[in-house]
Amino acid sequence: MRFIYLVLALFMGTLMFACGSTDESSVAAVEAERGMNSAESESFLTTLETLDQAGEVKSEFGTEIVKIRLRVMNKSEDAQLLRFRTGKKADVFIYSGGDLIWSTQQLSSIQMIDEKTIEPKDQMEVVLDWDLLDLKNRLVSPGTYRVQTKLLAEENVPAPGDVIFDIKK
User: Fold this and answer.
1) Half-sphere exposure (CA, 13 Å, Cβ side) for 161?
2) Confidence class of residue 9 from pLDDT cuts 50, 70 and 90?
3) Is residue 12 situated within a structural domain?
4) Which terminal residue of the chain has fewer beta carbons within 10 Å of its beta carbon, N or C?
5) Across the strands, what pairs with 84?
6) Neighbours of 157 (CB within 10 A)
């Protein structure tokens, strides 16, 4: 009888370990992709892209502005309401190596409650321009950069993985 309890305990421990944590605050590692990355849930498809001035997805840039687009598409058959506590819909973070070199967090924002209803199969997008200046207002060096975004909606919308791009001068 003890043997059965031991086997059952080992099985349950293995099952719990294999399934991982159910804690909502746990964060899984996200893979970075060149030029575009996405994530989806039952209701939403969220896409992060780096774009050139013509609006084309691109992962190599010269001295031109890098456009960063975050799109949220409603995949469901029902309208989805997103609520925001500020006029800003998303934060953008740009890293060189592991160092944060630019962010929208230092930009001012209007304090307001805003709502956006996304109809079925429709989408909302946020497009921000990065002028290749770092947090100290200096032009960045050529190299590989990583962009990360965070949608500032109160609702649970999947976060796309990071996007990698190069600056070549």
Assistant:
1) 14
2) very low
3) no
4) N
5) 114, 153
6) 21
Question: Of all residues in the chain, what percent carry a pLDDT higher than 90?
Answer: 70
Average pLDDT in the chain: 83
Q: Which residue has the tokens 């892209």?
A: 49
The CATH number linked to 83 is 2.60.40.2360
Residues found in the chain: 169
User: 135 and 106 in contact (C-beta within 8 Å)?
Assistant: yes
Q: What is the largest CA-CA distance in the chain?
A: 73
Q: Write out the residue range of the structural domain in which residue 124 sits.
A: 30-167
Instruction: Identify whether 58 is part of a domain.
Output: yes
User: What pLDDT is attached to residue 141?
Assistant: 96
Quote the pLDDT of residue 169: 79
Counted domains in the chain: 1
> Which residue type is seen at 84?
F
Write out the two tokens for 59: 């992962």
In a domain, 98, yes or no: yes
How many other C-beta atoms can be found within 10 angstroms of the C-beta atom of residue 138?
10
For residue 87, the 8-state DSSP code is S
Beta bridge partners of 147: 94, 163
Residue in this structure with the two tokens 């840039």, named with its chain if needed: 61
